[in-house]
Specification:
It is built from 21 helices and 19 strands. The chain has 551 residues and is an alpha/beta fold.
């Protein structure tokens, strides 16, 4: 085996190996050559070469999202690591462990006019779990920092940064290591909550609302799901990214809550709000809970307890499974209440109104989403881009066997395709991405990737602009709006598909969609893009009228 000659590079590689870090996403460069040589020539690591650092970072995020373990990013000095920042922020807020290893010039070269040199230390300080600013000479102190960074990525589930200065020569290799760093494995403490203070509140509350944000598939035990579903004093609200299903749960929040009048708001106001999972998409539920506050709110999470609804009273530092398993030993769900009955009856009325409306709408984004959700295969993994796509996805039923992911930590459009490809590489399931045109073209370097599985597919809704801006307040037809908000364009994905050797399908009406879709789904010789051109100017009207017709 060959090793980089520089001892500091050897230490980083050996400690990464000792912490069982397996996946290294490398962006080509010179200053990171010692680490690139070491990682690539060590059979303990699976290395990927992704030239665009922003895409590389989201690609790594997608792998880590699926494997639930740290994935490393490696880049050269200068502006390279700044391109990681969008994915670093997403990893921070989505609690996904990634390890950024940036090569640097020695500190003496910073701010003297040396090329490709910036202030790299602590560059992610507002969105990082831990910074390891190493010194040029290998030492036990450096080893401690590297160990600590890798420990924190696991223990606190987020991004960490290891900044490593190297002096030339960078490409020299040796056949024997000159370092033997100590490996310090993370110790995961048991989370223990004193449950009895919560039992009385639960038993006394007649209106308990459980609101579930982004969750990994299969996160919540079925026994807990069933207990919550059978308690008539409990309403459980989920989103498509919650990956938790039961017929007694309210899964279409905006559909349910948008037509509320003052009486409905007061009837639905909870006494106790219990939240867990990641970020919630629905703005309407946030506005409702901020105005009609519960008497108490519990948020359950090992690491983060955001006061999203301005009502947080208790931070419960454990997992939902552990908390509810212990709580339900002392509670009784035989108590008869009207809260769930009222909510489920209203949800059934909304479902009838929903079906009546969507059965007669013209070809549009909404009709396309209805068709897709009715026809995509079961048992797949579905990645959804942000903005309009994830909001349309909240309105339709999806088979419970389909796992759903979306970058909701920062809700950005910037890396959805790259994340989906990383997830597809790590997942054993077929992976389909549903995306809008602005998100797709913004991240088109995601396709510059030699690791894309042949069964990876993209469904691209192209309405020639950022259609969500037509839905938001302030929309008006004007050159300013069309250029600087909607970002209207005449682009299509055909040439990108050809350049990157994707199969390509394009339709412009519902009949063509129906006749072509099954071929797109069934053919898996190459990755594929299915571009669906929808009208630019009626989508917002159809969506607004949809909510008006739910009463």
């Amino acid at each position: 085996m060959i090793y980089p000659e520089i001892p500091l590079a050897q230490s980083i590689i050996e400690i990464c190996k000792g912490h069982h870090l397996k996946h290294i996403v490398i962006s080509p460069g010179s200053r990171n050559a010692p680490l690139t040589i070491g990682f690539v020539n060590n059979p303990n690591f699976k290395c990927y070469s992704i030239a665009d650092e922003r895409s590389a970072a989201f690609f790594a995020l997608g792998i880590a999202q699926q494997l639930k373990e740290p994935v490393a990013l490696l880049c050269t000095s200068g502006s390279a690591l700044l391109n990681y920042y969008p994915a670093v922020a997403e990893a921070f807020y989505s609690q996904i462990p990634i390890v950024i290893i940036s090569a640097d010039r020695p500190l003496s070269k910073v701010d003297i006019g040396d090329g490709q040199t910036i202030r790299q230390q602590n560059v992610y300080q507002n969105h990082i779990i831990f910074n390891a600013n190493l010194t040029e000479i290998a030492s036990s102190f450096n080893d401690m920092l590297i160990n600590k960074a890798l420990q924190e990525a696991v223990l606190k589930k987020g991004p960490v940064h290891i900044n490593a200065p190297f002096e030339e020569p960078l490409y020299n290799i040796v056949e024997q290591k000159s370092v033997s760093p100590v490996i310090i494995s993370p110790h995961i403490p048991a989370a223990k909550v004193e449950i009895h203070p919560f039992v009385k509140t639960w038993n006394n509350a007649n209106k308990k609302l459980v609101l579930i944000g982004v969750c990994e598939p299969h996160m919540l035990n079925q026994a807990i799901i069933d207990y919550l579903a059978n308690d008539t004093t409990v309403v459980v609200m989920t989103e498509v990214t919650s990956n938790i299903h039961h017929p007694n749960f309210i899964q279409h929040i905006d559909r349910f809550i948008t037509p509320f009048d003052e009486v409905d708001f007061n009837d639905f106001q909870p006494e106790l709000l219990i939240t867990f999972g990641g970020m919630v998409v629905s703005k309407r539920i946030k506005a409702f809970l901020r105005k009609y506050k519960p008497l108490k709110q519990w948020h359950i999470d090992i690491h983060r307890h955001y006061d999203t609804y301005d009502s947080l009273t208790d931070k419960i530092i454990t997992t939902p499974n552990d908390f509810f398993s212990e709580l339900f030993k002392y509670t009784d769900n035989s108590k008869i209440g009207n809260y769930r009955h009222w909510a489920l009856n209203l949800a059934k009325k909304r479902q009838i109104a929903h079906q009546k409306y969507v059965s007669k709408i013209p070809f549009s984004d909404m009709e396309v989403f209805q068709f897709i959700f009715n026809n995509i295969p079961n048992h797949i993994q579905l990645q959804i881009s942000n903005s309009a796509s994830i909001r349309y996805a909240q309105l339709f039923d999806l088979d419970p066997t389909i796992e759903v992911f979306c970058n909701r930590g920062t809700s950005g459009i910037d890396g959805s395709t790259s994340t989906a490809i990383g997830a597809a590489v790590a997942s054993k399931k077929q992976n389909i991405l549903i995306t809008g045109d602005i998100s797709f073209f913004y991240d088109n370097n995601a396709l510059w990737n030699m690791y894309i599985p042949p069964n990876f597919k993209i469904i691209l809704l192209n309405n020639q602009g950022g259609g969500i801006f037509r839905i938001l307040p302030g929309h008006q037809e004007s050159p300013t709006f069309n250029t600087y908000f909607e970002t209207e364009h005449n682009l299509n994905a055909e040439h990108l598909a050809k350049m990157h050797q994707f199969d390509y399908y394009n339709v412009k009406d519902i009949n063509s969609l129906k006749t072509t879709f099954s071929s797109f789904i069934s053919r898996n010789e190459k990755p594929a893009i299915f571009e669906i051109n929808t009208p630019t100017k009626i989508n917002d009207t159809i969506l607004k009228e949809y909510f008006k017709n739910l009463v």
